[in-house]
Design goal:
single chain; mainly alpha; rod-shaped; transmembrane; transmembrane helix; transcription; DNA-directed RNA polymerase
């Protein structure tokens, strides 16, 4: 029975500790949040993903749908030609 009593005492002390902690934390209005990925890094990652998706879309559109070579989307002459087609009146 002494083991059982010591377990009950340990449980009581844990409950008391939780109550004491909750009383101490009650005056605080907000918790400080530690982020795993900083906001500036999230912005860079999103910008990089947008750039990669645009390039992948151009590769599929120009290479597969347009019957061109995929590697040609990385040349300046291709983009100037595309811009001329877009701006053509």
């Amino acid at each position: 029975m002494s083991v059982n009593n010591s377990n009950q005492e340990a449980v009581k002390t844990r409950e008391q500790q939780k109550k004491e902690r909750s009383k101490e934390e009650a005056p605080r209005k907000g918790r400080i949040r530690v982020r795993l990925i900083p906001i500036w890094l999230r912005i860079i990652i999103v910008a990089l993903l947008i750039f990669l998706s645009v390039m992948a879309g151009a590769a599929v559109g120009y290479g597969v749908l347009g019957n061109g070579e995929v590697k040609d989307i990385f040349t300046k002459s291709t983009w100037t030609h595309i811009m001329e087609l877009v701006e053509k009146e």
